[in-house]
Amino acid sequence: MMFFYKDQCIKLWFSFLIGKFLSREWNLRFLRSTLFASVSSSLILSSILLLLLLLLSTMHSFNTDEYFMTIALEQAALAIIANEIPVGCVFVHNDQALSKAYNDTNRSLNGCRHAEFVAVERILEHHLPSIFKDCTLYVTVEPCIMCAVALKILGIKRVVFGCGNDRFGGNGSVFSIHQDKGGYQVQKGVLKEEAIMLLKGFYGGCNPASPAPARKKPHVHKCALKERILSSGPLISSRTILSILSAPLEIIPPVEILNTSIGVTE
């Protein structure tokens, strides 16, 4: 029955759109004859309600993904300040940020302290592992193979990432762990360009934890990017990060301190 209503809803909607291109008089006749004569009032009401639900669901999903990915980008920006590789993430449960984190590999000298692992560790301090089955992970860079497997073991519901990880990606670039039995949904490419710009800013300089022969000379772009993030003060917001990333580094204006606080989840 639901499929029947959905089909009728789509037909009525497109018929109405077509009618918008014709005269108003024809449109009124169309509404009277087609909607009210050919279809019962209960079906009309059901179709309209279903259409609204479908549209709201689509809009909600699109806006929600970008909103939470922006929070992940904020975490990645904080990673640059901490001289960490700029990867940030946020776990979301019932449309609420459950835990935020960024890479901690350089400070800890532990290659396993990826943003995802740090955030998971904090969640498990207060929740049972079963909570992950209702969680979505937003992360700026495609999870590596290690993280992708860990997310599968935890039973994560969905993963949304920005840019791909061509060398170590576990969600499509190298392996597709999420497609194995008992896997999870994956959405890629959300705010991809912003994630790439942060990585370019970092790798344009050098990774302080890399072996000396492998280090590159400091690059003006990394310094400029870090300075612009620092100039926003201890309180930065989504608007700050996106404004920093939307302009060439050479012409980025100073950013005023904003009143929206973010930080690593305690």
TrEMBL record:
Annotated GO biological processes are: tRNA wobble adenosine to inosine editing
The residues that cross the membrane are 35-56
Identify one Gene Ontology CC term for this UniProt entry. Answer: cytoplasm
Keywords for the protein's UniProt record, in alphabetical order: Hydrolase, Membrane, Metal-binding, Transmembrane, Transmembrane helix, Zinc
The answer to keyword Metal-binding applying to this record is: yes
Superkingdom, according to UniProt? Eukaryota
Domain called CMP/dCMP-type deaminase: residue spans: 63-175
Q: From the UniProt record, which GO molecular function terms apply?
A: tRNA-specific adenosine-34 deaminase activity; zinc ion binding
List the InterPro entries hit by this protein, alphabetically: APOBEC/CMP_deaminase_Zn-bd (IPR016192), CMP_dCMP_dom (IPR002125), Cytidine_deaminase-like (IPR016193)
Q: Name one Pfam family in it.
A: dCMP_cyt_deam_1
Q: Which PROSITE patterns match?
A: CYT_DCMP_DEAMINASES_1, CYT_DCMP_DEAMINASES_2
Q: What is this protein called?
A: tRNA-specific adenosine deaminase subunit tad2
Which organism does this record belong to? Answer: Neolecta irregularis (strain DAH-3)
Q: Lineage of the source organism?
A: Eukaryota, Fungi, Dikarya, Ascomycota, Taphrinomycotina
